[in-house]
Amino acid sequence: MTAETSQTLDRGLRVLKLLSDTDHGLTVTELSNKLGVNRTVVYRLLATLEQHALVRRDLGGRARVGLGVLRLGRQVHPLVREAALPALRSLAEDIGATAHLTLVDGTEALAVAVVEPTWTDYHVAYRAGFRHPLDRGAAGKAILAARQGALAVDGFTLTHGELEAGASGAAAPLVGITGLEGSVGVVMLADSIPERVGPRVVDAAREVADALR
């Protein structure tokens, strides 16, 4: 810790990180051991976080992440969207297909930013807010492949007809961003994806990741 940082805030954030890494919650004793502080300090931290709905405690006394974190998370999407738009615009114009940024939202893939090309006669209508299962469509499958360490050597995923009849998709996951799972991709009306599209999508995903770091 330096003179410019708050030890209490640092500990509170560490509590949230520890709780976010577990599905079954943590006891005061477990948090005390992991933080290297006494139980009294942990009780005060939890009480403060509970006041802001960032932490909740069940009947057994185990602390878990609270619903207030979801409200904070919803404010992240506009920031992420703004950072991603330049790369998405470039991708859409270059490929002539609808480009999108998709993030994990629970068990679903959620399109948070979509850019359509300006010069094509027709393209797939794809809207921000569109949701689909992670195991369907290039966007979700690219995320799952990265999560499972099973991404193809070329770094992108291709699908056809999984979300819309006659449409093909290509997507590459965002890599190296702590706490954020997502992908960048394109969707087009075609039986197959042209060879140059996959590598171009990978480049766009890298650009978005760099903008978010």
Question: How would you describe what is shown here?
Answer:
InterPro entries: ArsR-like_HTH, GAF-like_dom_sf, HTH_MetabolicPath_Reg, Tscrpt_reg_IclR_C, Tscrpt_reg_IclR_N, WH-like_DNA-bd_sf, WH_DNA-bd_sf. This is IclR family transcriptional regulator. Keywords: DNA-binding, Transcription, Transcription regulation. With 213 residues, the protein is of the alpha+beta class. The mean pLDDT is 92. The strands form two sheets. The chain has a six-stranded antiparallel β-sheet with strand order 5-4-3-8-7-6. It is built from seven helices and eight strands; from the N terminus they run H-H-H-E-E-H-H-E-E-E-H-E-E-E-H. Helix 2 packs across helix 3 and helix 5 runs antiparallel to helix 7. Strand 3 and strand 4 form a beta hairpin.
Q: What's the main sheet like?
A: 6 strands, antiparallel
Shape: elongated
The neighbouring-strand order within the major sheet is 5-4-3-8-7-6
Helix content: 40-55%
User: How would you classify the helix and strand content by structural class?
Assistant: alpha+beta
Q: How would you describe the oligomerization state of the chains in this entry?
A: single chain
End-to-end Cα distance, whole Å, is 22 Å
Overall residue-averaged pLDDT value:
92
List low-pLDDT spans: none
Number of helices: 7
Radius of gyration: 21 Å
Record field, number of beta strands: 8
H/E element order: HHHEEHHEEEHEEEH
Measured by DSSP, the beta-strand proportion falls in 15-25%
